[in-house]
């Protein structure tokens, strides 16, 4: 394919050849002018030289414009690259700020509890629809044991149910096999928090005579030997009293969004420990 570069080269050769021919004609015509024919030759060649001069200057302008265009394209490419790098750096800075803020919250939370603990990262999630669990990058080598409580600043996550040397499995409080001794913060009513469907929980064995209302906050009672007293669990989303039964049906929305947690705190050697209240 005949490129722009090849075209410019051919054009330059043509202009150069034409110039040489004209110069040769000038030399011949100058000799003829000595014999009296110079006026006629100048009248013919003058316009041609003017046209060639115009073409030559136009070619020079095109040539300089071409280089300016190449320079502009290169500069534009570099600017786009710099902009992309700046955007990437901005995203990294924003992520670092979010991470630092989250870790500060974790540190402040750990300082409130006088108990040995360790931070861990979430490395996996159980895909089974019948179980709700997470895997962390801490295990027996780090002091983690089966039954240890797992929390985040927002509230209770669950407890350790399986341990290897370097990894552990956490059963979330929304799992049907989970059970947490819970306390209604406002009225001090008690019940057992059990996992339910669709990422929710139920407060079971809550007597009808107990004052429990929608919007009430639930915290750990500290009586199950796993979680310290006073850690947030969730909020009462529905209270149902039906039939002649002794207990009321209470639905609870957990405070923790289990799909968004990235790190957790594991209380080593879980026990009643110190209250957060």
Q: What attributes does this structure have?
A:
Thrombin, subunit H; 2 helices; alpha+beta; elongated; 6-stranded antiparallel β-barrel
Q: Can you offer a commentary on this structure?
A:
By secondary structure, this protein is of the alpha+beta class. Among the domains are: 4-84; 179-256, Beta Barrel (Thrombin, subunit H), CATH 2.40.10.350. It is 38% helix and 26% strand. It is built from 2 helices and 12 strands. The strands form 2 sheets. The chain has a 6-stranded antiparallel beta barrel. The protein has a 6-stranded antiparallel barrel with strand order 6-7-8-11-10-9. A hairpin with a 4-residue loop joins strand 4 and strand 5. Helix 1 (4-33) runs antiparallel to helix 2 (38-111). The longest helix is centred in the first third of the chain and has 74 residues, at 38-111. The two termini are 82 Å apart. The model is unreliable at 31-38 (pLDDT under 50).
Topology of this structure?
Layout: H1 4-33, H2 38-111, E1 117-125, E2 133-136, E3 149-152, E4 155-163, E5 168-172, E6 179-184, E7 190-195, E8 201-204, E9 217-220, E10 232-240, E11 249-254, E12 263-267
Antiparallel strand pairs: 1-2, 1-12, 2-5, 3-4, 3-12, 4-5, 6-7, 6-9, 7-8, 8-11, 9-10, 10-11
Helix pairs in contact: 1-2
Strand content: 25-35%
- Output mean pLDDT: 78
**Computed CA radius of gyration, to the nearest angstrom:** 42 Å
What is the succession of H and E elements?
A: HHEEEEEEEEEEEE
**CA distance, first residue to last residue:** 82 Å
Strand order of the largest sheet: 1-2-5-4-3-12
User: Total strand count, please?
Assistant: 12
Please tally the helical runs, counting DSSP H or I stretches of 4 or more residues.
Answer: 2
Main sheet characteristics: 6 strands, antiparallel, barrel
The percent range for helix content is: 25-40%
As an assembly, this protein is single chain
Low-confidence stretches: 31-38
SS content category: alpha+beta
Shape: elongated
